[in-house]
Amino acid sequence: PWYFVPVLPVTYVICGLGLIRLISEGIKNTNFLNKKYSGDIIISVFIILWSALSYIPLRKNADWLTNGWVGAKERERVYACAAIWAGRHIKNDLVIAANEIGAIRFFMPPNSSLIDMFGLLRNNETLTKNYIDLIKVEQPQLIYSRDHFDSKEVVKSELSSSYDWYKFKSLDIGLRSDLEQELAPYLVDISFIYDTLNIKREYKWKSRK
After folding, report:
1. Are 53 and 78 a contacting pair, CB within 8 Å?
2. Closest Cα partner for 134 from 125, 142, 126, 124?
3. Roughly what angle, to the nearest 10 degrees, separates helices 8-28 and 38-63?
4. Which residues pair with 115 in a beta bridge?
5. How far is the C-alpha of 144 from the C-alpha of 122, rounded, in Å?
6. pLDDT computed for residue 127 by the predictor
7. Distance between CA 182 and CA 170 in Å, rounded?
8. Are strands 95-98 and 113-116 parallel, antiparallel or unpaired?
9. What is the pTM of this model?
10. 142-146 and 95-98 beta bridge pairing
């Protein structure tokens, strides 16, 4: 996560100094390598090898940071819009499963419920249960997961025919299959909500009979 970035340079320097010391001590105690410049050569080879092995994951992270990274405000806005859309189109007994619950719970209608897949908001009865088991029991109409989490793939693997998947910006939306024909055409409404919603204000839900 981004909040680890400030400590990484210091960590790398400390690890690097420790590694250099370890290699240097090993060279001093090895007659075979006790030659001029041998330590520098070994360290240089190690740096090149480490760089080669690190290139692919670092390149992927760099691409994600520059092209796919979503800031907190954008993320919360997407969640809020998806929650409001669900409340508008599913009038009764709305249940949503999500792995980041703050904005979703805040903007959901008061007469709805939320399955916390990460487990931060669970009672003693459900705390130790796998979220797939909770989804099987509760059968939420919608599953909301950011696209870099593995929730979508896990649900597809365990409940392959139960949910149809759609995408809105960085959000994977799992729509229960029995509602797909009825609600999928209206998913475009999330874009309109996104363009007009002010997440700095509480969304006022009208009371429902």
Report:
1. no
2. 126
3. 150
4. 97
5. 17
6. 76
7. 24
8. parallel
9. 0.67
10. parallel
d(CA 38, CA 54) in angstroms, rounded, equals 24
State the Cα–Cα distance between residues 52 and 59, nearest whole angstrom: 11
- With a cut of 80, say whether residue 187 has pLDDT above it: yes
Decide if 97 contacts 123 (C-beta within 8 A).
no
DSSP string for residues in 99-138: SS-HHHHHHS-TT-EEEESSSSS--TTTTTS-HHHHHHHH
Contact 134, 146 (CB under 8 A): no
* Residues 78-134: tens digit of each pLDDT: 999 999 999 999 988 999 999 888 889 999 998 899 999 887 777 777 777 888 999
| Angstrom distance (rounded) from CA 146 to CA 77 | 13
Among 68, 164, 146, 136, residue whose Cα is nearest residue 103: 146
